[in-house]
Amino acid sequence: MSAQVIPFPRAMTAVANDGEATPELLRLADLIAERVRRERQCTPAEAVAAARAAMRAG
Length: 58
Prior knowledge:
Layout: H1 9-17, H2 23-40, H3 44-57
Helix pairs in contact: 1-2, 1-3, 2-3
């Protein structure tokens, strides 16, 4: 059984707007943002910012 990914469209949109819109990167941004949101208990906007920073850092 695989883990269910909860859609996080703001993260996917943010990455797509950065010109990085491959399916793999969109899924990765989604996973990063959701994990950050859960672990830090932050707002969706803060989670998206963290996902974008992580994607840029590689």
